[in-house]
UniProtKB/TrEMBL annotation:
<comment type="similarity">
    <text>Belongs to the universal ribosomal protein uL24 family.</text>
</comment>
<keyword id="KW-0689">Ribosomal protein</keyword>
<dbReference type="Pfam" id="PF16906">
    <property type="entry name" value="Ribosomal_L26"/>
</dbReference>
<dbReference type="InterPro" id="IPR041988">
    <property type="entry name" value="Ribosomal_uL24_KOW"/>
</dbReference>
<dbReference type="InterPro" id="IPR005824">
    <property type="entry name" value="KOW"/>
</dbReference>
<dbReference type="GO" id="GO:0006412">
    <property type="term" value="P:translation"/>
</dbReference>
<keyword id="KW-0687">Ribonucleoprotein</keyword>
<dbReference type="GO" id="GO:0019843">
    <property type="term" value="F:rRNA binding"/>
</dbReference>
<comment type="function">
    <text>Located at the polypeptide exit tunnel on the outside of the subunit.</text>
</comment>
<dbReference type="GO" id="GO:0015934">
    <property type="term" value="C:large ribosomal subunit"/>
</dbReference>
<dbReference type="GO" id="GO:0003735">
    <property type="term" value="F:structural constituent of ribosome"/>
</dbReference>
<dbReference type="InterPro" id="IPR008991">
    <property type="entry name" value="Translation_prot_SH3-like_sf"/>
</dbReference>
<dbReference type="Pfam" id="PF00467">
    <property type="entry name" value="KOW"/>
</dbReference>
<comment type="subunit">
    <text>Part of the 50S ribosomal subunit.</text>
</comment>
<comment type="function">
    <text>One of two assembly initiator proteins, it binds directly to the 5'-end of the 23S rRNA, where it nucleates assembly of the 50S subunit.</text>
</comment>
<dbReference type="InterPro" id="IPR005756">
    <property type="entry name" value="Ribosomal_uL24_euk/arc"/>
</dbReference>
<keyword id="KW-0694">RNA-binding</keyword>
Length: 117
């Protein structure tokens, strides 16, 4: 893999979905890190996250959607008002988030957490 910024940008821009999913990884809270012995995990709809940076710092909410095309996460309660009065989600980059509570309904995700290495 190259160190050149232009090639890094190109890689992210052209990445297929299975790689984009991994690029959407979010740090785990200290309690979850200790429990699952992992530093981060790809974010999913249903997870509860805390915003660490930006205008909405310290806001906690459930993930309502994950935009793999633009590398952004939509969070419940993070809305902004458009000039015409409509409320829209304010997208947040996953590097500015921390997973507080995980949605463990999916068997595949449980297998990922149990896997070593």
């Amino acid at each position: 893999m190259s160190k050149q910024p232009r090639k890094q940008r190109k890689f992210r821009y052209q990445a297929p979905l299975h790689i984009r999913h991994k690029l959407m990884s979010v740090n785990l809270s200290p309690e979850l890190r200790e429990e699952y012995e992992r530093r981060s995990l790809p974010v999913r709809k249903g997870d509860t996250v805390k915003v660490l940076r930006g205008d909405f710092r310290d806001h906690e909410g459930k993930v309502e959607g994950v935009d793999l095309k633009r590398y952004r996460v939509m969070i419940e309660g993070l809305n902004v008002q458009k000039p015409d009065g409509n409320q829209v989600y304010h997208p947040v980059h996953p590097s500015n988030l921390m997973i507080i509570e995980m949605d463990l309904d999916d068997d595949e995700r449980n297998e990922i957490l149990e896997r070593k290495g």
